[in-house]
From TrEMBL, chain A:
NCBIfam families registered for this protein in UniProt: PRK05089.1
Protein purpose: Exerts its effect at some terminal stage of cytochrome c oxidase synthesis, probably by being involved in the insertion of the copper B into subunit I.
Organism phylogeny: Eukaryota, Viridiplantae, Streptophyta, Embryophyta, Tracheophyta
Record's protein name: Cytochrome c oxidase assembly protein COX11
Domain of life according to the entry: Eukaryota
A GO-annotated cellular component: mitochondrial inner membrane
From TrEMBL, chain B:
Protein name (record): Cytochrome c oxidase assembly protein COX19
SUPFAM superfamilies, per the entry: Cysteine alpha-hairpin motif
Signal peptide as annotated in the record: none
UniProtKB keywords: Disulfide bond
KW Cell membrane (keyword) present: no
Length: 280, 91
């Protein structure tokens, strides 16, 4: 806080003086030009933190400013010395500031490259992170479904909680298909494979090829949702007016029951969206 | 499509394909009757998958026969030894 006082005083000084005065190297400035700082005492007195310096610029001579508190008067003689010292050291400081600025430039360039590099590296890193943690609804795969089923059958784990799997179907804009789930929901216990259907109908007059993708909500339950077989990620071609049933065969991992994070989850929504690939 | 997901969600990720691949589409509606049976069973049983498992097994078998699904032992897919019922009948 003391430093700020000195620096504010010097900046004010510099604004008031003309350049010739600075070069003069004299310790004492003409009284007429020197502004006097009057310190108004706050309730707790001089030198405390809640002292508010209020600057009053008068042309009173320095010697006559009696109402300075001792703390303030100690500061005053230092100011002219500070300003003269500044241009004594100018030569050496210029060289050092040049060195410093070169260092800063190097540092900043390195920072720019580091940022650009990390933004490129973020893509595979993020993918790996999501695969490992299943964050954001990524469906993980570590062992195949048959292995899981075999393992759970051997263990004889019987699931008790019934989970309602609801189905949702969406079509992208500009896609003249009617795409709905054939059943609204299926009640399944973890560890049981279940079958569900979606119906798609091409309402246009041209054969249209579409591709679908899916998502499971809530996101954290996606880890336990295994799709054994479905109709997604492959182009499906429907002739005009054709209606077709698309099955989904899925399996909910029994480990779903033992996970504490899944305690409140009794509903899972499987959502499919169809996108248009081409139309002839 | 994917609503939410605080951390960017599934935006930059390739979704995981299904384990056994894609069901070829049943353009000729060969297994339609089995499908209808299964769906009506679901409706009557309050959408409980357990009660209609035998029908879904039938549907998958139909698919395998008509070459719409890779042939595989259904017990591997979770349609293994049925619960106590059939075993007691066999006595």
């Amino acid at each position: 806080m003391a430093w700020s006082r000195i620096s504010s005083r010097t900046s004010l000084l510099n604004r008031l003086k003309n350049p010739e005065v600075l070069l003069r190297e004299s310790r004492f400035l003409p009284d007429s030009l020197y502004p006097s700082y009057k310190f108004f005492k706050a309730s707790s007195g001089c030198g405390s933190n809640n002292l508010m310096p209020r600057c009053e610029f008068t042309t009173r001579p320095l010697t006559k400013s009696y109402d300075f508190c001792s703390y303030g008067s100690r500061r005053l003689p230092r100011i002219p010395a500070f300003s003269s010292q500044r241009h004594y050291a100018s030569h050496a400081s210029v060289a050092s500031t040049e060195k410093k600025s070169k260092k800063t430039l190097l540092y900043l360039t390195a920072l720019v490259f580091a940022m650009v590099g990390s933004s490129y590296a973020a893509v595979p890193l993020y993918r790996r992170f999501c695969q490992a943690t299943g964050y954001g609804g990524t469906v993980q795969r570590r062992e195949s479904v048959e292995e899981k089923i075999a393992r759970h059958e051997k263990d004889g784990t019987m699931a008790t909680r019934e989970i309602v799997v609801q189905f949702n179907a969406d079509v992208a804009d500009g896609m003249p298909w009617k795409f709905v789930p054939t059943q609204r929901e299926v009640r399944v216990k973890p560890g049981e494979s279940a079958l569900a259907f979606y119906t798609a109908e091409n309402r246009s007059l041209k054969p249209i090829t579409g591709v679908s993708t899916y998502n499971v909500t809530p996101m954290k339950a996606a880890v336990y949702f295994n799709k054994i077989q479905c109709f997604c990620f492959e182009e499906q071609r429907l002739l005009p007016g054709e209606q077709i049933d698309m099955p989904v065969f899925f399996y909910l991992d029994p480990e779903f029951e033992t996970d504490a994070r899944m305690d409140g989850i009794n509903n899972i929504i499987l959502s499919y969206t169809f996108f248009k690939v081409s139309e002839e | 499509m994917s609503a939410g997901g605080a951390f960017g969600g599934n935006r930059g990720l390739r979704p995981v394909p299904p384990e056994k691949g894609i069901f070829p589409l049943d353009h000729l509606h060969e297994c339609d009757s089995e499908k209808k049976e299964y769906l009506s069973c679901l409706k009557t049983s309050g959408h409980k998958s357990e009660k209609c498992r035998h029908l879904s097994k039938k549907y998958l078998q139909c698919r395998m026969e008509k070459n719409l699904m890779a042939k595989q032992d259904l017990s591997e897919l979770g349609f293994g030894k049925p619960s106590g019922m059939e075993a007691s009948l066999g006595d």
